[in-house]
Design brief:
about 180 residues, two-stranded antiparallel ribbon, binds zinc ion, alpha+beta, DNA Binding (I), subunit A
Length: about 180
C-alpha cells in the first residue's frame, strides 16, 4: 500500500500518511498543495443534492496547513539505523540481514555514551561482542564510516520500505549522507 509523504508549510517532510489520512486531509481542506503524478483516483459517495460523485486525485506528496513545530528530531530505531548504515557492520564491513545486526554504541553507554544517532552504528554480533565495553580506539577497531544524524529528508526515506518515484525525487534533493543509498 502506498503512503503519502506529508510536508509542512516550509516543505520539510513531516511524516507518512495512510491513504485514509490523506483523504481526510483533503476533505478538511487542509492540503495547501500536492506534488507529483496523481495516484489512481479515490471515489467517494454520490452527493444527494448535486448527484455528483466525489473524487479525490491524491498526489504522492502533500503539504498541509498548520503550525510548524520546531526542529525535526529523527526517531532512532534499529530498522532505520541499519538502513542508514547500508546493512553493513561498520567495523568489519560485512553485509548482514537485519536479524544478524546489532546497535553498537561507539562510546559505550556504561562509559557515558548516549543512545543517539551520532553515537550508534550497525555492527555484526561478532564485532559487537569483540568490541565489548571499549572504544573503537581501545579495541583497535576503526569505524569504516562516521555515524551521523539523518536530516528529515533522509530519515523519511530510511523509514520507508517502498518509496514512490516522485517521493524519491523530492527526498533525494536534500540527501547529504555519503552512503550508497544517498548516491
Ligand atoms: Zn562485523
Amino acid at each position: 500500500m502506498s503512503a503519502i509523504l506529508k510536508l509542512d508549510v516550509t516543505g520539510q517532510p513531516r511524516g507518512w500518511l495512510t491513504i485514509n489520512e490523506a483523504v481526510l486531509a483533503y476533505s478538511r481542506s487542509d492540503v495547501l498543495y500536492g506534488i507529483g503524478y496523481p495516484l489512481p483516483p479515490i471515489l467517494g459517495g454520490i452527493q444527494r443534492i448535486s448527484g455528483i460523485r466525489s473524487r479525490i486525485d491524491l498526489q504522492p506528496i502533500i503539504a498541509l496547513e498548520g503550525r510548524v513545530f520546531g526542529e525535526f528530531i529523527p526517531r532512532l530505531c534499529n530498522k532505520t539505523l541499519f538502513r542508514r548504515d547500508d546493512h553493513r557492520c561498520i567495523y568489519c564491513g560485512g553485509k548482514f540481514i537485519k536479524s544478524d545486526l546489532t546497535r553498537d554504541h561507539v562510546l559505550p553507554i556504561s562509559r557515558g555514551g548516549r543512545d543517539r544517532w551520532e553515537n550508534v552504528v550497525a555492527a555484526c554480533k561478532r564485532c559487537n561482542f569483540h568490541k565489548g565495553n571499549r572504544t573503537p580506539e581501545e579495541a583497535k577497531m576503526p569505524l569504516l564510516a562516521i555515524p551521523f544524524i539523518p536530516n528529515s529528508f533522509e530519515w523519511h526515506f530510511l523509514t520507508k520500505e517502498r518509496v514512490l518515484g516522485d517521493q524519491m525525487d523530492y527526498l533525494s534533493t536534500q540527501f547529504k549522507a555519503k552512503r550508497d543509498w544517498a548516491m
